Amino acid sequence: MKKIITTFIIIAIVVSFTMLHNKKQETLSESTISQISLIEVDGSLQNNAMASLIAPYKAQKDSAMNIIVGQATETMSVDKPESSLTRLIADILLAEARKVDPEAHMAVTNIGGIRRPLFQGNITIGDVYEILPFDNSLLILEYKGSDIIALANAIATKGGESVAGITLDIVGNKAENIKINGQPIDSTQTYKVVTTDYLSWGNDQLTPLANYTNSTPLNLMMRDAMLNYLKDNKILYAPNDKRILLK
pTM to 2 decimals? Predict the structure, then answer.
């Protein structure tokens, strides 16, 4: 019994000491925080040793990123419901998909994944990485006609996306006059769509893309698709055909 009482007393002392210690820490932290002054992080903060260490790697990276891989005839923008660059990116995805499967019908990717315009003049590898910075891999996915209609409505709800091979009118939040390569959608037909692994989960409000029945990975990232395209097409022209119309 004495052992139990002694053990209980020791535990109580330890708990009390811990609570008191934590309380002191809290008080000290609050006191310390009140005395902290913010330091602005800008180019004036330099560590010469670190700068010297990374300089060779930075020079190597900059050299690689500055390699010219093509030219743009004009500045191409990123905008909704579509724009010159959103059309071009979708065209590139569809062209790369058709190297693997010539029967690929259409391409779709989210405009949010295209991070800046393509400026007129020389195109460098660095430009491609800045335009398409995410590690998104490409897939050819198969869908029923009804799923393509649902996808078109999701695109309409978002106010547009980057597409190729499909045209539609946005009326309110609904898609009308939906066509695949100029033909009305056949609900009994299977359609092959190239998109990204990120969107294949139905992300970015494109939920119908998660309803595919078959998947063929291209083992290719979006930016690599653009770099491949530039090997075959050194000069990029802005596609001006209308694919998504606001009515």
Answer: 0.78
